[in-house]
Amino acid sequence: MLLADLVDASGQVAATRSRKAKLAALAGALRRAGAGEIGPAAAFLAGQLRQGRVGVGWAAISAVQAAPAATPTLTVGDLDAMVAALGRLGGPGSGAARAALLRDAFERATEAEADFLRRLLLGDLRQGALEALVTDALAAAVGVPVEVVRRAVMLDGDLSRVAATALTGGEAGLCAIGLQLLRPVQPMLAATAADVGEAIGACGLSSVEWKLDGARVQAHRDGDEVALFTRNLNDVTARLPGVARLVRSLPAARLVLDGEVLGVDEDERPDHFQDTMSRFGRHDGGGAELGVWFFDLLHLDGRDLLDQPLVERAALLAEVAGPLKVPSVLTDDPAVAADFAAGALAAGHEGVMVKGASSRYEAGRRGSAWRKVKPVHTVDLVVLGAEWGHGRRRGWLSNLHLGARGPDGTFLMVGKTFKGLTDELLAWQTARLLELEVGREGIVVHVRPELVVEVALDGVLASDRYPGGVSLRFARVRRYRPDKSPAEADDIATVRAIRPGSG
């Protein structure tokens, strides 16, 4: 199978907003894949590498000088083998070997394939098709009910492996995939709600739980063996020896738990998110003293609990985890839920989760049965520049560079965002920013600081990445503010005073 087939499908996906059309393009490409190709093809279409990170960054790719090929000859198998070879490199001489592999691939690639390859290796495909859509397209391609494929991906955690099983084993092969201890499953995700009243109205009788602002972790135990995984299914057991000891001490021999790792101070107040993540990300034992709290139980001593109602899973979790269970209240009264949410915020946490009492654990899905409720901050910032977009945003200035007022009247950059922009707003924004252009640097167009934009965010983090000394967390555009002048934008002190969970 030629890589060009995937590139063509990716282009069709990027060119449409129709989910039906996206599915048709993806399924068509997957139908053309053979038994040894459908695994990597599915991964590539989802913007993934089967091998995970392979040590290739922008510097290595930008150093490659290769004229595009006139006709496509590069196959999906060729690309998969090249990525695997990159992942095996290490030690003396690996830099030169990596450059040679990349040069060979780009010399064989057409211009469109080279663009696809570049974005794939950098994790920046941005074509409008994530794993969930490719999963549904796989079901259509192999003629298996979509629910069966979704559940197989949920339990296996590896889309490429499930794709190969779907082609060779069909529905029976997929149904044979079950929850396996020490192999992570994809985490269940939550939709959002503006407030607890809206969430209770949607979910009815619910478990309202503290929403901890830490690092999500999935804990597996099989006898004395414990494995800990991130929400991206990476094994972090070695980083969290204290958490592993706690899991090993629980009164059950076989467990799968879903929870959150968090740092706390002497008064049991939670650390700032960035401090927890800094310790969590270290490989030198920095995460040894991080605490853990659990909010779900997926397996207990030989019994899978994914399809059991939340209230049953919660009762068993309370027996197993005791004080390590995240605080919660079962209610259908919005006032009770609001009081509980206020207590969570007062304790320093970022909000609450509202989960339907009868909900199953729908791993890998952003289901409506779980709703996250947390304060949303808005700030008025000035646009300092923007980056040209990729995929279906090609030709538009998309990723905004945002600044807050400094004490001397200048503007200090505090972050970027490309979220919340409609096609209509992108078109207007591109035209207006080009009128304000003062210079360019690579894909960045710098502009006069004249436009004020209202940005919603979940908080800020201390950061030396931007001159403002902070970075915006989950920033998204709400609207432009033509009624405000740059002098009326929020100052840097106001932005710095915001932290996750405050408000």
Report on the structure:
It is a single chain. The chain folds into three domains: 3-175, DNA ligase, ATP-dependent, N-terminal domain (DNA ligase i, domain 1, Orthogonal Bundle); 189-373, 2-Layer Sandwich (D-amino Acid Aminotransferase, Chain A, domain 1); 377-496, Nucleic acid-binding proteins (OB fold (Dihydrolipoamide Acetyltransferase, E2P), Beta Barrel). A hairpin with a 2-residue loop joins strand 14 (437-441) and strand 15 (444-447). The strands form four sheets. Strands 11, 12, 13, 14, 15, 16 and 19 form a seven-stranded antiparallel β-sheet that branches. Strands 1-10-9-2-8 form a five-stranded mixed β-sheet, with helices on one face. It has 17 helices and 19 strands. Helix 5 runs antiparallel to helix 6, helix 8 (131-142) crosses helix 9 (146-156) and helix 9 (146-156) packs across helix 10. It is 37% helix and 24% strand. The protein is α+β, with helices and mostly antiparallel strands and 503 residues long.
Summarize the structure.
The chain has 503 residues and is of the alpha+beta class. It has helices at residues 3-14, 19-31, 38-45, 58-62, 76-88, 94-108, 111-121, 131-142, 146-156, 159-175, 196-203, 241-249, 273-280, 310-321, 334-346, 423-435, 492-496; strands spanning 189-192, 206-211, 215-222, 225-230, 254-262, 291-300, 303-304, 328-331, 351-356, 366-373, 377-388, 397-405, 411-417, 437-441, 444-447, 452-457, 459-462, 470-473, 476-480. Strands 11, 12, 13, 14, 15, 16 and 19 form a seven-stranded antiparallel beta sheet that branches.
Low-confidence stretches: none
How many domain units?
A: 3
Shape: globular
Mean pLDDT: 91
In the CATH hierarchy, what is the architecture of the largest domain at level 2? 2-Layer Sandwich
Q: Largest sheet at a glance?
A: 7 strands, antiparallel
Report the count of strand segments: 19
Structural class: alpha+beta
Helix content class:
25-40%
Please identify which CATH superfamily of the largest domain we are dealing with.
DNA ligase/mRNA capping enzyme
CATH classification, class level of the largest domain = Alpha Beta
